[in-house]
């Protein structure tokens, strides 16, 4: 599909610059509002779903083996690109990697991090984080730093001239690897990367922010090694209570392997079939039969994915390839979550080196708590996180079902009144 012609801001006449710039600002702002809300806060329920078997221990769900050909990481060689100094890589690794990017040449003159802060190349957290006030960066970045995470936090942020007050200084103080991020848009949530991000025109057509962000992950992946672990997250509704990579040991001591973790929303109140949003995404994109096969499965949140470099490399390539092929945004679907659920349950994230693993809500590194407070959840299944769900300790920290503090809490904003004071007084330094 040929991409529509992009808006050429440099060609605007001086007399019309102010009005045209104002119009574009409104379009981009509206698109951004659509993006930050693409995970709905309301849910439908039908009948009673017993979750007792999901909360007795750390339970993982392994998808069925893919019957079609899947990516064999051992048969293609990685491109040679200049990278910053990294830990010594264990030489006995079985992996070599298909080239990134999936579309277009390897970038050689693309965007550089702001403020001279470079990738360390160890572990990394990726997120799209534009147009927010300082407090959102404090909750996300500040909580990571407070609980001992000192490696890369890689964010796509507003250009310096468009940053909210105090954001530039905070990003510098907390050593964030920040990339200025701008798009050319044709309507609301229908955009392309500007040419200067990749160093050449975006090879993909105009699409939603939920799709565009995978091109950012792909661009950043080249700075990491086989021993790195990477956590991809939504930004606005996430905070931390620990170092998310602590379970995987020191980077320099790791043996490279394929390990991909995905995280489900609460199954007792939500599955694919009873959620009007998730069922529509899958049915519209992949067909009625695809939905029938998946309607009893847990909803996997696309706003949090963690894995080793080999696994995240495969995950990003697979998501991009599916987006390039299916093009759900042309069918009115703004979200990336339909792709993630369809691909996981059909085995596309499985390889000969290992399979993807799904952690149910309240297990694993990321605790996704939003569905438990949806306004359509029956009253008998709703109540405070501490007295009803019993997943807060005496100090207010959010817990996994084994009683440990969740390293990462996602979709906390669905519990805003209950959690905001705790977050803004306990999890980051002001």
What would you say this structure looks like, in words?
Helices cover 26% and strands 13% of the residues. The chain is built from ten helices and 13 strands. The protein has an eight-stranded mixed sheet with strand order 1-11-9-10-7-2-3-4, with helices on one face. A three-stranded mixed sheet has the order 8-13-12. The chain is globular, with a radius of gyration of 21 Å.
Task: Record keyword descriptors for this entry.
single chain, 430 residues, alpha/beta, eight-stranded mixed sheet, three-stranded mixed sheet, 10 helices, 13% strand, disordered N terminus
Short description:
The protein is an alpha/beta fold and 430 residues long. It has helices at residues 17-36, 134-146, 167-173, 195-198, 209-221, 276-286, 288-294, 309-326, 337-345, 416-426; strands at residues 60-62, 124-128, 152-157, 177-180, 183-185, 191-193, 229-233, 238-240, 260-264, 300-308, 356-359, 366-368, 408-410. It is 26% helix and 13% strand.
How are the secondary structure elements laid out?
Blueprint: H1 17-36, E1 60-62, E2 124-128, H2 134-146, E3 152-157, H3 167-173, E4 177-180, E5 183-185, E6 191-193, H4 195-198, H5 209-221, E7 229-233, E8 238-240, E9 260-264, H6 276-286, H7 288-294, E10 300-308, H8 309-326, H9 337-345, E11 356-359, E12 366-368, E13 408-410, H10 416-426
Parallel strand pairs: 2-3, 2-7, 3-4, 9-11, 12-13
Antiparallel strand pairs: 1-11, 5-6, 7-10, 8-13, 9-10
Helix pairs in contact: 5-8, 6-7, 6-9
């Amino acid at each position: 599909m040929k991409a529509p012609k992009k808006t050429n801001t440099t060609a605007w006449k001086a007399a019309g610059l102010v009005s045209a710039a104002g119009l574009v600002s409104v379009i981009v702002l509206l698109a951004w509002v659509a993006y930050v809300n693409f995970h709905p806060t309301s849910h439908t329920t039908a009948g009673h779903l017993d979750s007792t078997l999901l909360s007795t221990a750390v339970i993982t769900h392994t998808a069925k083996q893919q019957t079609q050909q899947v990516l064999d990481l051992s048969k293609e060689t990685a491109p040679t690109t200049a990278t910053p100094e990294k830990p010594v890589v264990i030489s006995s690794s079985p992996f070599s990697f298909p080239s990134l990017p999936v579309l277009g040449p390897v970038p050689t003159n693309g965007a550089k991090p702001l403020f001279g802060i470079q990738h360390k190349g160890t572990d990394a957290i990726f997120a799209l984080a534009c147009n927010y006030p300082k407090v959102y960066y404090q909750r996300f970045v500040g909580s990571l730093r407070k609980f001992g995470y000192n490696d890369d936090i890689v964010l796509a942020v507003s250009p310096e001239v468009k940053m909210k007050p105090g954001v530039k200084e905070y990003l510098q103080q907390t050593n964030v690897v920040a990339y200025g991020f701008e798009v050319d848009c044709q309507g609301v949530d229908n955009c392309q990367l500007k040419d200067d991000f990749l160093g050449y025109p975006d090879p993909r057509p105009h699409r939603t922010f939920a799709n565009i962000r995978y091109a950012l992950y792909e661009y950043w992946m080249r700075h990491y090694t086989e021993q790195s672990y990477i956590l991809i997250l939504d930004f606005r509704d996430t905070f931390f209570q620990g170092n998310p990579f602590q379970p995987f040991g020191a980077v320099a001591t790791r043996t490279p392997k394929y390990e991909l973790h995905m995280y489900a929303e609460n199954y007792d109140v939500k599955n694919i079939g009873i959620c009007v949003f998730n069922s529509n995404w899958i049915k519209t994109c992949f067909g009625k039969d695809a939905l029938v096969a998946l309607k009893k499965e847990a909803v996997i949140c696309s706003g949090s994915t963690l894995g080793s470099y080999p696994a995240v490399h495969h995950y990003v390539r697979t998501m991009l390839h599916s987006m390039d092929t299916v093009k759900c945004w042309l069918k009115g679907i703004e979200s990336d979550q339909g792709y993630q659920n369809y691909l996981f349950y059909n085995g596309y994230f499985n390889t000969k080196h290992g399979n993807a693993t799904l952690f149910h809500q309240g297990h694993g590194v990321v605790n996704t708590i939003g569905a438990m407070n949806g306004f359509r959840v029956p009253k008998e299944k709703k109540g405070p996180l501490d007295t009803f769900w019993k997943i807060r300790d005496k100090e207010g920290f959010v817990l996994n079902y084994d009683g440990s503090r969740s390293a990462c809490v996602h979709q906390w904003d669905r519990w805003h009144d209950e959690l905001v004071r705790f977050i803004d007084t306990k999890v980051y330094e002001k």
